[in-house]
Amino acid sequence: MTTPPSLDALAILSALSERRNVLLLGPPATGKSRLLAEVAALFEMPPTPPAAEPRHDPDGAVAIPDIPEPAAPAFTMPGEGRARRKVFRSVLHQGSKHREFLTGIVPDARPGKPPGQFRIFEGILYRASEFAKEEDSCALLIVDEINRGPAVQVFGGAIVAMEGEKRLASDGSRRAETQSFDLLDPKTGETVEYAFPAHLYILAAMNQADVSVEPLDVAFLRRWAPHPLEPSAAVLRTHFGVEVTRALPDLPAEAKDVYEAAVRAWEAVNARIALGRGPEFRIGHGVLMAVSGVPSDLDA
Asked: Contact, 121 vs 99, CB < 8 A?
């Protein structure tokens, strides 16, 4: 039996389908990396509807109770119906360049090339875009740590063109709303007007507590649909097998008392941090989930 997709993953997929660009943000250790991996896996291999279950048939040989199945959360898969699906991954850092995402001239150091030669490099955003333009294709570009590098300079003139409503039509044709930007064409070496396809999706993640090389200004941020992640005591209590309404004794009588005390202490520390530094500096629940296995013995 496979694990059903998380509600966060389904919400991100729906937002990608509608807005094309989603920004995942939250304090450290709130599960951003895990969620990126889950969304990538679902994008490449969309979940298939479950097989039909036997239903009650009063005239049948065996009377099967007609118990309704719980309805799965409704969501829209990006590029639904397209068979060729591919995920591209990148991490932004202080040395990231515009040419690494789109195109640009770089020294040609490939084997067999004479010294002093140059070529036009195809960046990862350009490669993802070109793949999404192919027939029956769609692409997801994942950009982790987007606020660790000069994001505004990296995207350059593509900032406006990346908006969902300013892409090409689903069939690749140009619409009245389509926005283009200048791009160095790797095939011809000429500067051309380039536009992004409808089935290119971008999912970025950022740790709000990190100090950015360049601030992510409003003009850049408003091109993204935000999906915040919060530190969750419920996740911790589920991880430790602790009931939400569990009373806390003066002295621990079993392991669950220790776990409940740890969760409450973590909540108190986060409340102080949020008051003094801001909510983006809180400690994520993942810091208390790093140890494999949850001991049930009190001494352990």
From this structure: yes
Gap between the Cα atoms of 93 and 143, Å rounded: 10
Residue-level pLDDT at 1: 44
State the DSSP H helix or E strand holding residue 183, giving kind and residue range, or none if neither: strand 181-184
According to DSSP H, which parts of 69-150 are helical? 98-101, 124-133
Backbone angles phi, psi at 137, to 5 degrees: -125, 155
Contact 221, 206 (CB under 8 A): no
Using CA atoms, how far apart are residues 188 and 101, in angstroms rounded to an integer?
Answer: 19
CB atoms within 10 A of CB 231: 24
What gap in Å lies between CA 144 and CA 74, rounded to an integer? 27
CA distance 162 to 178: 10
Residue 151 to residue 73: CA distance in whole angstroms = 34
DSSP three-state, residue 63 = coil
The model's pTM: 0.85
- Rounded CA-CA distance 185/191 in Å is 6
Q: 260-299: per-residue pLDDT in tens?
A: 999 999 999 999 999 999 898 999 999 998 767 888 889 8
Paired strand residues for 193: 182
Region class of 262: left (phi > 0), else alpha (psi between -120 and 50), else beta = alpha
CB 136 within 8 Å of CB 83: yes
Angle between helices 7-19 and 32-44 (to 10 degrees): 60
Q: Which residue has the tokens 């001991």?
A: 295
Based on DSSP, count helices (H) and strands (E) in the chain, helices before strands: 9, 9
Strands (E) located in 195-247: 200-207, 225-228
* CA pair distance 25, 277, nearest whole angstrom: 17
What's the rounded Cα separation, in Å, for the pair 3 and 176?
Answer: 43
